[in-house]
C-alpha cells in the first residue's frame, strides 16, 4: 500500500514523540511491504516563530493532500500570553475545522502491569476498557467570543445535525463492543445539553434500540469515571466535557502520556495525536513518553489506512513492551528502571512480531 502521511511535530516534546511514531510506522511499512511517504510541516508555536501564524496555508494544503495526519503537540510558555492575538492553539482548532474532523475517539484501556502507575485502587482498574467519543468542532471552543475590560463571554452552540452525527459514531462503536452507550451532558442547567439529550434519546431509541443507554450529568460522570470505570463502554459527549473527562480518564492508566486519540470525519483521512500537551518542562531531555503517540499511529493504521493487522501488531508490541517492564519516568513505580524516549521506542519496535 502507498500512503502519504503529514507529520506535524509542533512544540515541546512534540518533535520527540513524533519521531518515535515515525520510526514505528517505518518498521511497519518495511515488514508488511507498504510504502509510507512522510512530509513534515509547521503548526503551533513553531509556525508562529517561523512564519508568524499558527497554521500556515502550506500546512493545511499538505494535510488535505495526505491520507492521514500525525500531530505531536502545540503550545508552551513562550506563547502563553492570554492576551495575544495569535496563539498556538489556534492552529490546532483551525486544523480540525479545515479537515472537518468532528469525532474525537479516545480509547482508555488499563494494562494489568500498569495498575501500580495509577493513583486509584487496583481493584477498580482491572478490566477497564472504554472509549470516549468527543464532539470536536462545535460547542464553546468554537463559539463567538467577546471581551471588555470587565466582562467576557464564550458562546456555546450546538446544532441538531452536529449532535446526530457524533451520536451515530458513538452508537456504531458501542454496537461493535459491549452494547453500552453513556451520554454525558449538563441538561439540568444548559440549554445546549437539553437539546443534546433530546436528540440522543430520540436517535438511540429509533436507530439503536439494542443498545443500553445511560445518561449522566457531567459532574456525576466525573465521579463515576473514577468510582466505577469498569462499567463504562462508550461515552459520548460535547467538546469541552470530553476534553476534561479524558484528561481525568488518563489517571486510570497512570499518565497522560499513555493515551492516544483519533479525530475523524466523513472521509478516511484522520488527524491522530496523543492527548497530552507539549510538556515544555521535559522537552529536549529525552524523558517524554512516546506510548500515546505510538498508539495514535496504530489508530492511524486502523482508521485511515484500513490496515487492521498492522494496527493490531503495533498495539500488541506496545503491550508486550510494557508487560516486559519497559517504563518511562511518568509510569515507573517502586524503583523500576526508567527508559528514555528513544529506548522506549526501541523496546516497542523489538516487540513487533
Give a brief description.
This protein is α/β, with parallel strands linked by helices and 353 residues long. It contains eleven helices and twelve strands. Helix 1 (14-32) runs parallel beside helix 11 (341-350) and helix 5 packs across helix 6.
Structure overview:
The structure is a single chain. The chain has 353 residues and is α/β, with parallel strands linked by helices. The chain folds into two domains: 1-102 and 262-353, Isopropylmalate Dehydrogenase; 119-253, 3-Layer(aba) Sandwich (Isopropylmalate Dehydrogenase). 41% of the residues lie in helices and 19% in strands. The protein is built from eleven helices and twelve strands. The chain has helices at 14-32, 44-51, 57-65, 88-99, 160-175, 191-207, 218-227, 239-253, 291-303, 308-323, 341-350, and strands at residues 2-10, 35-40, 68-73, 103-109, 129-135, 145-147, 152-154, 180-185, 212-217, 234-237, 260-264, 271-274. The strands form two sheets. It has a ten-stranded mixed β-sheet with strand order 2-1-3-12-11-4-5-10-8-9, with helices on both faces. Strands 6-7 form a two-stranded antiparallel ribbon. The mean pLDDT is 96.
CATH class of the largest domain: Alpha Beta
Largest sheet: 10 strands, mixed
Question: How many beta strands in the DSSP annotation?
Answer: 12
Helix content: 40-55%
Straight-line distance between termini: 19 Å
Mean pLDDT: 96
Q: Could you give me the name of the CATH homologous superfamily of the largest domain?
A: Isopropylmalate Dehydrogenase
Q: Would you identify the regions where 5 or more consecutive residues have pLDDT less than 50?
A: none
Side by side, the strands of the main sheet go 2-1-3-12-11-4-5-10-8-9
Structural class: alpha/beta
How many structural domains?
2
Mind telling me which CATH architecture of the largest domain this is?
A: 3-Layer(aba) Sandwich
Strand content: 15-25%
Shape: globular
Order of helices and strands: EHEHHEHEEEEHEHEHEHEEHHH
Using the coordinates shown, work out and report the CATH topology of the largest domain: Isopropylmalate Dehydrogenase
Number of helices: 11
Q: What Rg, in angstroms, do the CA atoms define?
A: 20 Å
Amino acid at each position: 500500500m502507498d500512503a502519504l502521511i503529514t507529520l506535524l511535530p509542533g512544540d515541546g516534546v512534540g518533535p520527540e514523540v513524533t519521531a518515535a511514531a515515525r520510526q514505528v510506522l517505518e518498521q511497519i511499512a518495511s515488514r508488511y511491504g507498504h510504502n509510507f511517504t512522510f512530509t513534515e510541516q509547521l503548526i503551533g508555536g513553531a509556525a508562529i516563530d517561523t512564519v508568524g501564524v499558527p497554521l500556515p496555508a502550506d500546512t493545511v494544503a499538505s494535510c488535505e493532500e495526505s491520507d492521514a495526519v500525525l500531530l505531536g503537540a502545540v503550545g508552551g510558555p513562550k506563547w502563553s500570553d492570554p492576551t495575544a492575538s495569535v496563539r498556538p492553539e489556534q492552529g490546532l482548532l483551525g486544523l480540525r475545522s479545515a479537515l472537518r474532523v468532528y469525532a474525537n475517539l479516545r480509547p482508555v484501556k488499563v494494562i494489568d502491569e500498569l495498575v501500580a502507575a495509577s493513583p486509584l485502587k487496583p481493584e477498580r482498574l482491572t478490566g477497564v476498557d472504554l472509549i470516549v467519543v468527543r464532539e470536536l468542532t462545535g460547542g464553546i471552543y468554537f463559539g463567538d467570543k467577546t471581551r471588555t475590560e470587565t466582562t467576557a463571554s464564550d458562546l456555546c452552540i450546538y446544532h441538531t445535525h452536529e449532535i446526530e452525527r457524533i451520536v451515530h459514531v458513538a452508537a456504531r462503536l458501542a454496537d461493535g463492543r459491549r452494547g453500552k452507550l453513556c451520554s454525558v451532558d449538563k441538561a439540568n442547567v444548559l440549554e445546549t445539553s437539553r437539546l443534546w439529550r433530546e436528540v440522543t434519546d430520540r436517535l438511540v431509541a429509533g436507530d439503536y434500540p439494542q443498545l443500553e443507554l445511560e445518561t449522566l450529568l457531567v459532574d456525576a460522570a466525573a465521579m463515576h469515571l473514577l468510582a466505577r470505570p469498569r462499567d463504562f463502554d462508550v461515552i459520548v459527549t460535547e467538546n469541552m466535557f470530553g476534553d476534561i473527562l479524558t484528561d481525568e480518564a488518563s489517571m486510570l492508566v497512570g499518565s497522560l502520556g499513555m493515551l492516544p486519540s483519533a479525530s475523524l470525519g466523513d472521509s478516511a483521512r484522520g488527524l491522530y495525536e496523543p492527548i497530552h500537551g507539549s510538556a515544555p518542562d521535559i522537552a529536549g531531555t529525552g524523558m517524554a513518553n512516546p506510548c500515546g503517540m505510538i498508539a495514535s499511529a496504530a489508530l492511524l493504521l486502523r482508521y485511515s489506512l484500513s490496515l487492521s493487522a498492522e494496527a493490531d501488531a503495533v498495539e500488541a508490541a506496545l503491550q508486550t513492551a510494557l508487560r516486559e517492564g519497559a517504563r518511562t519516568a511518568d509510569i515507573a513505580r517502586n524503583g523500576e528502571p526508567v527508559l528514555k524516549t528513544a529506548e522506549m521506542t526501541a523496546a516497542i519496535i523489538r516487540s513487533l512480531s
